[in-house]
Write a structure and sequence with these properties.
Elements (H helix, E strand, L loop, with lengths): L11 E2 L5 H10 L3 E4 L2 E2 L4 E6 L2 E6 L14 H5 L5 E11 L5 E6 H11 L9 E10 L2 E7 L2 E6 L20 E9 L5 E4 L7 H5 L7 E10 L2 E7 L2 E5 L10 E10 L4 E8 L21 E3 L10 E3 H6 L3
Parallel strand pairs: 1-2, 5-7, 15-17
Antiparallel strand pairs: 2-6, 3-4, 4-5, 6-7, 8-9, 8-11, 9-10, 11-12, 13-14, 13-16, 14-15, 16-17, 18-19
Family: Belongs to the bacterial ribosomal protein bS1 family.
InterPro entries: NA-bd_OB-fold, Ribos_protein_bS1-like, S1_domain
Keywords: Ribonucleoprotein, Ribosomal protein
């Protein structure tokens, strides 16, 4: 039976398993995890499993380490963090003490072959945000394998920083947008956060709600009221992107995909970030249309085209 592949820090902990349980996991090739205790001068990660020493040679610390495509920094930053692996053997160290030999690279190769390589653009999968850059967020899509979620794929509403939408360690759902030139996944989340109509249905003319300023233009201020929904308020001074405000909903116009807002409170006392609300949580998307049927402006994603044109 094929094992379930998950993001790192989601596997059974090996630290407190009995010797018999560790032997069984080694025989079956089960992916386990434990906290890396050190990256030593021999360029190997050290662990302790049930009171027994365990080591992971550098070449086994990540798929690609053996060929030089993985840098030391990517490995030594595992110290103090849960790290997944398969147990490849039980040896003895230079003092004759038992020592488990571990491989994260093999866990990643299994994850790719049996899970990730079976997926295609439009498939939805769970991810964990591992770090954030100005251009996007890197996510663990399984066994520590990284994929990029670009900033422009985080929502229909424009944001200044990926940190406006996600945080490190956050577990999210993404869809596969395509693969890059190296075959790595490029992710998207905006197609899971609802169409214009689905988001607008949550609001009513006459309500006052919390909003986040996303851009200040000469002709008005765009204020986000949900991750995939923004409206336009009249220009006013003293506003900056990222600022939380309260807004009165003056009108909702599906035929133009516009929401007219009036800013009521220009400076709420604390920052605000909307929680992600998923309208689609599993399965596969071939095509997604954000626009309302009556609006001539079309915002859509064709995942079938991405599947035919990788990279």
């Amino acid at each position: 039976m094929m094992q379930a592949y998950r993001t790192e820090n989601s596997y059974r902990s090996a630290a407190r398993l009995s010797p018999a349980e560790l032997r069984a996991a080694m025989a079956s090739g089960e992916i386990l995890q434990a906290t890396a205790l050190a990256f030593d001068t021999r360029r190997q990660l050290r662990f302790e499993l049930g009171g027994v020493k365990a080591v992971m040679p550098f070449a086994q610390c990540a798929d690609g380490a053996e060929t030089g495509t993985v840098r030391d920094i990517a490995v030594l930053t595992r110290v103090g963090r849960p790290t997944c692996f398969v147990i490849e053997g039980l040896d003895t160290d230079e003092d004759g003490a038992p020592c488990y030999r571990l491989s994260r690279a093999e866990a990643q190769r299994l994850c790719k072959a049996e899970y990730l390589d079976t997926l295609s653009p439009g498939d939805i999968l769970p991810c964990t945000v591992t770090h954030i850059e100005p251009f996007g967020a890197f996510c663990d899509v399984g066994c520590g394998i990284s994929a990029l979620l670009p900033i422009d794929c985080m929502s229909v509403s424009r944001i200044s920083s990926p940190a406006d939408r996600v945080s490190v360690g956050q577990q999210i759902l993404c869809a596969i947008k395509n693969r890059d030139a190296q075959g790595r996944f490029v992710l998207t989340i905006r197609e899971l956060l609802g169409t214009w109509a689905e988001n607008a249905a949550r609001f009513t003319v006459g309500e006052t709600v919390v909003g986040i300023v996303r851009s200040v233009e000469e002709y008005g201020t765009f204020v986000e009221i949900a991750p995939n929904l923004a409206g336009l308020a009249e220009s006013c001074t003293g506003l900056a992107p990222g600022q939380a405000v309260s807004v009165y909903i003056k009108n909702i116009l599906p035929e133009k995909m516009k929401i007219k807002l009036v800013i009521v409170n220009h400076a709420l006392s604390q920052p605000h970030r909307f929680e992600l609300r998923y309208f689609i949580t599993e399965g596969h998307l071939d095509r997604w249309v954000y626009s309302t049927p009556e609006c001539p402006k079309r915002i859509e994603t064709d995942f079938a085209v991405a599947a035919c044109n990788p990279g």
